[in-house]
Amino acid sequence: MFSKILLITLFSPFLYASSIIDNSFITRYEYGQMLYENPRGIGCNKCHGLKGEGALIAKYKTSKGVEKRLSAPQISKVSWQRFKEVLSAKENKSLVMPTYFLTNEELVSIHYYITNLKK
Ligand code: HEC
Is the model's pTM score more than 0.85? Predict the structure, then answer.
């Protein structure tokens, strides 16, 4: 009896972790949102907007006085294939977007979130 309780106590953190992403604690949508705004690095929302609609990052003038705009594209309709290709590259080719180190599970959740955003 005692050993059974001990076992449950010892393993419950693992049970907890694996149930985070199913429906018992938070939904995949909520998990995706959390990661989108806090992906162990600068939040995706800071560049792509709160709803993945794309956003202007900066406006600047070149030395010749030409006005330039730097913006991040809309990503709320991006295919899973493309999403995965961009985000799982060991070193992405972007000069602007940082390289992230997200697990497949985390990518699935973020992609789910941005493509199912409640408008
Ligand atoms: C510092 C700004 C910045 C941050 C933060 C950022 N991105 Fe980006 N992202 C960009 C820019 C700019 C591009 C366009 C390609 C380029 O210029 O490098 C891009 C491109 C993409 C693309 C490819 C879109 C397409 O249609 O090809 C995806 C998908 C993407 N970002 C997802 C994300 C996700 C998910 C996060 C968070 C984990 C994130 N980005 C964080 C700036 C950012």
Answer: no
